[in-house]
Amino acid sequence: MTALRIVAVNAGLSEPSSTRLLIDRMVGAVTEQMGEGRVEVEIVDLRDLAVDLGQAMTVGFASGRARAALDAVEGADALIVATPVFNASYSGLFKMFFDLVDIDAMAGKPVVIGATGGSPRHSMVLDHALRPLFAYLRAVVLPTGVYAASADWAGADGDTTSLNDRIARAAGELVSLLTPRRGAAVTDVTVDGRQLSSASAVTDGRRQAVEAAGIANFAKLLGTA
Ligand SMILES: Cc1cc2nc3c(=O)[nH]c(=O)nc-3n(C[C@H](O)[C@H](O)[C@H](O)COP(=O)(O)O)c2cc1C
Question: Which residues does 3 contact at the CB level (< 8 Å), separation at least 6?
C-alpha cells in the first residue's frame, strides 16, 4: 500500500518553538493512529524560509526552498498546520506562505489546524482566523482544532491531559477521513473514544467514516458522493 503523504507546516519563530512542539505532538498522534508505514510526514519550518517567502511576495513567484515547500504542500494528501498567535490572529509568516499556495491545489485537501498563544483567551483564533482562511482556499478543515496556551505546557511533565486529548481527537478525525475501507466493516473506526459506525459493510468507507464523524458535507466536498 502506498503511504499517504502528510505535510506539517510550522509557523513558530522561537527557538525552541512551542508551535513546533505542538506540530510534533500532532504529527506523532496521527502517525501512531495511522499505523506503521501508512503515512509519510514532512515538516516545513517557515522560519527557515522567511527571506525566501518575502522575496517571493515581491517578485510574484516562489523559487528555491520556498517553491519546494509550496510543492510539498500542494501535493500532500493532507496538512497539519500551526501558527503562533500574533496580535489575535495568525502570524504574518503563516499568512504569507498560504498567500503563495496554489488555491486550486488546496481544494478538498484535509487540514488540521492548530495554534499556540501566551493567553488561553485567544483560542478562538482557530475559528475566527484559521478556519475562514482555509475555507476560502476550499480546503476541508477538520472539526477539532488544537490550541495550546502557555499554561497547557506547564504541567509537572510539561503537558496536560486535556491538550493530549484534543490532539488525539484531531488526529482521529484526520485518520478517519484518510482511511477508506471499501467493503469492510468500520466498527473499529473511532473518534474521541466513540465508535463511529456499527455498519458491517460499506461500499464507500471514506464516505461512511466522514458521515459518522458528523461532517456529512465532507463527502460532497471531496467529490466522493
Ligand atoms: C508580536 C507578538 C504578538 C503576540 N500576540 C499574542 C496574542 O495576541 N495573543 C496571545 O495569546 N499570544 C500572543 N503572543 C505570544 C505568542 O503567540 C506565543 O508566545 C507563541 O506560543 C510563540 O510561538 P513559538 O514559540 O512557536 O514562536 C505574541 C507574541 C509576539 C512575539
Answer: 37, 38, 39, 40
**Ligand 1 pocket residues where CB is under 6 Å:** 12-14, 17-20, 84-88, 116-119, 122
Residue with cell 517567502: 53
Rounded to two decimals, the pTM is 0.83
Query: Residue 175: how many CB atoms within 10 A of its CB?
Result: 24
Torsion angle, CA of 154/159/165/169, rounded to 10 degrees? 100
Count the helix, strand and coil residues of the chain and give each as a percent rounded to the nearest 5.
50, 20, 35
Sequence spans of domains, the chain? 4-179, 180-225
Among 13, 86, 128, residue to substitute to test ligand 1 (most atoms within 8 Å of Cβ)? 86
pLDDT tens by residue, 5-58: 999 999 999 999 999 999 999 999 999 999 989 999 999 999 999 999 999 999
**CATH architecture entry for 4-179:** 3-Layer(aba) Sandwich (3.40)
